[in-house]
Amino acid sequence: MSRQALMVMDIQNAVVARYPDPGYLPRLREAIARARAGGIPVIHVVVGFRPGYPEISANNKMFGGLARRAAAAGEEAGMAIHPEVTPEPGDIVVTKRRVSAFAGSDLDVVLRAGGIDHLVLTGIATSGVVLSTLREAADRDLTLTVLADACLDSDPEVHRVLTEKVFPMQADVTTVAEWTPA
Hints:
By secondary structure, the chain is α/β, with parallel strands linked by helices. Helices cover 37% and strands 20% of the residues.
């Protein structure tokens, strides 16, 4: 029997601030509430680095910018999980070091220990953490669902192409309202 987990990825203050959408966090909260009500584990995935950012190469455009923004916002405040989706007791928080939720994290250990083989993906950005995690999870033979309206991207057309044309090749794509936690 398949065991699902809801992945809530990169919903950190510094990230959310870059993607203003007043309807996004309420939809995400609904997905989290539905998962909890269905007894499905909620895994919050955050990007994080050691003080001074020794994991960030000078060659890394994406994370170099994130480190600067987080430092400007106050390192701890910028990297914290957004207060509208604060983890509750029993939720799992995984820290990653790159775009994919698997990169530099212990996510694989958490999934195997919990017997989880079906990931329900949400997060910011569709073209970042969601895409990278989906591809790596598919290569690990995990079953995947993407909650399209619980993903967000700065480019609506990129989001549309990914959720309508790319993701369906490796995942079931649905909405928060249509998702049945199992």
